[in-house]
């Protein structure tokens, strides 16, 4: 009997992403054989950091038949630590007998035992629970529904970016389901839960699915937290698988959404900038495998009105250009693009260009996307200086404050005198000929005196 437990460092084999991965992974000391799925049983709701409880489980399962292999491991889902296990028997009858141990209390918790994909399809003997608190575990649901009847299986969906959880509880009979529906609206860990069941046969035959989205062209040091932040608004994410084969190569990831609408929303992010990279987002795995740049040259610092024709005219002497694609950028910031040449020698010629400017804007080029990570801000337009205008108030001009300089005051008084003379002349023109003669005589007399 092989054992996945290491006495030296008290490790149950790391953190695989699923039961199936745990069954096919290599043990710590020896190469593990491949076993038929019909011989495997999976154990959930085990106590954390309790080796004695795991040994007790092995003793219970040993009564069902001969154990070929066993493995206990810990995984972290939505920030919650979970202990799980895998046991492989020699015959299908022994594995079937082991499933009857569901509900056995080990270390203060009721273990849940199932075969490979035994409860993968919905049925009339199950209920759905929504609006669960993120801290809810299988033991909480067991304690809530144990009075309804015999529980066969409990599964909790733990999206990585959701504020609430969903769960399924499978019972032995439909009579238990009717009792469970009466718990609709009951409070569990501060949340008022919703309990429902399948209504029609069409929905009963519909299998539960995951909707994968394949993302390529990511940095090699990408983390799950970064992908949750980038794609979290598209919809609830069930799990994420990151693929990085080499440090020098680009990273890839598979994001599993819980519904098709969320996956379609994620595809709309194709071509958007992400940490200086432009990932390819598709719903087909072939699209991820075909995402390879052809002799790329990355360009930054382009003005907002730059077109692909401007780039082509600038770099056409370097060699045959296969494609030019711009990168979506924030409003007000400079544009970015990459050029795909047919020959790798064209990149060397482009790097040797001295006058790198298009439409008066200096360009920055590089062989990698790192040139995009540098912040190239657009120059701010110069503000035109407004001409100062002198507003004169004729009524208050003479009574201006005495603190005004004398030279400035004289100029202002001259302007006032000129305005008054012009007003008198215009008034004189408006008088009748007789009145003009009388006024002229009066002026002469005053002059003679």
TrEMBL record:
Basic and acidic residues biased stretches: 1-11, 424-436
Compositionally biased intervals (Basic residues): 437-449
GO MF terms, alphabetically ordered: RNA binding
RRM domain boundaries: 39-118, 125-196, 211-286, 295-370
InterPro entries from the UniProt entry: Nucleotide-bd_a/b_plait_sf, RBD_domain_sf, RRM_dom
Statement: the UniProt record of this protein carries the keyword RNA-binding: yes
Gene3D superfamilies hit by this protein: 3.30.70.330
Protein name in UniProt: Nucleolin
Source organism (scientific name): Frankliniella fusca
Source lineage: Eukaryota, Metazoa, Ecdysozoa, Arthropoda, Hexapoda
């Amino acid at each position: 009997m092989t054992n996945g437990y290491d006495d030296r460092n008290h490790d149950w084999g790391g953190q695989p992403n699923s039961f199936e991965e745990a069954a096919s992974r290599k043990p710590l000391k020896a190469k593990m054989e491949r076993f038929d799925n019909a011989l495997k049983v999976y154990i959930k709701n085990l106590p954390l950091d309790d080796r004695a409880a795991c040994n007790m489980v092995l003793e219970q399962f040993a009564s069902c038949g001969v154990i070929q292999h066993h493995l206990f491991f810990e995984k972290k889902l939505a920030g919650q630590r979970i202990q799980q296990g895998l046991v492989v028997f020699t015959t299908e009858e022994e594995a079937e007998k082991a499933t009857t141990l569901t509900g056995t209390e080990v270390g203060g918790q009721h273990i849940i035992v199932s075969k490979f994909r035994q409860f993968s399809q919905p049925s009339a003997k199950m209920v759905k629970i929504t609006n669960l608190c993120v801290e809810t575990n299988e033991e909480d649901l067991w304690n809530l529904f144990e009075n309804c009847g015999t529980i066969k299986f409990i599964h909790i969906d733990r999206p990585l970016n959701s504020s609430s959880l969903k769960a399924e509880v499978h019972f032995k009979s439909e009579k238990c389901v009717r009792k469970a529906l009466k718990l609709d609206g009951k409070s569990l860990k501060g949340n008022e839960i919703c309990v429902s069941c399948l209504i029609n046969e069409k929905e009963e035959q519909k299998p539960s699915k995951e909707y994968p989205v394949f993302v390529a062209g990511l940095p090699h040091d990408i983390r799950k937290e970064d992908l949750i932040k980038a794609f979290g608004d598209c919809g609830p994410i069930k799990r994420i698988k990151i693929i990085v084969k080499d440090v020098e190569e680009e990273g890839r990831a598979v994001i599993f959404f819980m519904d098709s609408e969320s996956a379609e929303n994620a595809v709309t992010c194709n071509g958007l900038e992400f940490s200086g990279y432009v990932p390819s987002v598709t719903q087909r795995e072939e699209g991820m495998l075909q995402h390879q740049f052809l002799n790329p040259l990355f360009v930054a610092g382009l003005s907002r009105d730059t077109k692909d024709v401007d780039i082509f005219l600038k770099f056409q002497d370097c060699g045959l250009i296969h494609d030019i694609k711009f990168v979506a950028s924030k409003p007000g910031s400079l544009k970015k693009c990459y050029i795909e040449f047919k020959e790798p020698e064209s990149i060397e010629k482009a790097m040797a260009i001295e006058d790198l400017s298009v439409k008066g804007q200096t360009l920055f080029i590089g062989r990698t996307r790192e040139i995009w990570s540098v912040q190239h801000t657009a120059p701010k337009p110069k503000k035109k200086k407004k001409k100062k205008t002198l507003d004169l108030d004729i009524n208050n001009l003479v009574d201006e404050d005495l603190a005004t300089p004398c030279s400035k005051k004289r100029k202002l008084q001259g302007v006032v005198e000129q305005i008054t003379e012009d007003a008198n002349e215009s008034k004189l023109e408006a008088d009748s000929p007789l009145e003009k003669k009388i006024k002229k005589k009066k002026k002469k007399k005053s002059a003679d005196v």
